[in-house]
Amino acid sequence: MSVSDQKKKQIVEAAIAEFQERGYAGASMDRISERAQVSKRTVYNHFESKDVLFKAINQCLADQVNSALELPHDPDLPIRDALVRLGWAEGELMINPCFMSLARMIMSETIRDPELAADMDSRLTKLSVFTEFMEQATREGKLTAGDPSLAATQFLGLIKSRSFYPNIHSGKVTGR
Q1: Homologous superfamily assigned to 1-48
Q2: What is the pTM assigned to this prediction?
Q3: If pLDDT is split at 50, 70 and 90, which confidence band does 175 have?
Q4: Contact by Cβ (8 Å): 71, 85
Q5: pLDDT digits (tens, 9 = 90+) for 4-49
Q6: Which of 121, 106, 23, 20 shows the shortest CA–CA distance to 57?
Q7: Which residues are CB-contacts of 96 (< 8 A; sequence separation ≥ 6)?
Q8: pLDDT at 54 over 60
Q9: How far apart are alpha carbons 126 and 114 in whole angstroms?
Q10: Per-residue pLDDT for 166 more than 80?
Q11: Domain 55-170 CATH (choose: 1.10.357, 1.20.140, 3.30.70, 1.10.150)
Q12: Distance of alpha carbon 167 from its chain centroid, rounded?
């Protein structure tokens, strides 16, 4: 990792801690630079504003979610096994303390800012991944789903009800 990449990583980690502790409105670029142990100029060389930095952190979360769900379709896999595999691809994130900490921080800000919530929602592909799975399984005759989009939403809701919501609200992360 280059020195520049290392400094950028330090800034992002410091910003996450700052945003978690003080929220977006209370966070300051001065404290972020202190936490990252870099100059304020270095922070601004990487991120032109607090908003740009926060959006970069949002993108990190979206990238984690989207990459976790990059599962190749296996038509030979029994439907139960395929559903479990897809469910755990999402569920593993929900029991990851680093992911959940980041999700809590971002969620608290999206509640405050509907525009930010819409931006974050546009970055996530997970519902489309679940919908495509349900459509494919229906086409293959492995599932009977009159509305694959609804089936995807319900399946995702089941996962979230057992992992995401309990973990996001408790401040702790519980496993399997």
Answers
A1: Homeodomain-like (1.10.10.60)
A2: 0.70
A3: low
A4: yes
A5: 889 998 999 999 889 888 888 889 999 999 999 999 999 999 999 9
A6: 106
A7: 173
A8: yes
A9: 20
A10: no
A11: 1.10.357
A12: 14
The residue type found at 74 is D
Residue whose pair of structure tokens reads 């408790």 in the numeric block: 170
Tokens 């984690």 identify what position? 64
Domain ranges of the chain: 1-48, 55-170
Dump pLDDT digits (tens) for 106-136.
887 888 888 888 887 777 767 888 899 999 9
pLDDT > 90: percent of the chain: 39
141 SS3 class:
coil
DSSP state of 128: H
CA nearest neighbour of 143 among 126, 130, 128, 124: 130
Q: Cα separations (Å) of 118 from 19, 69, 168?
A: 19, 21, 19
Report residue 140 as tokens.
């293959």
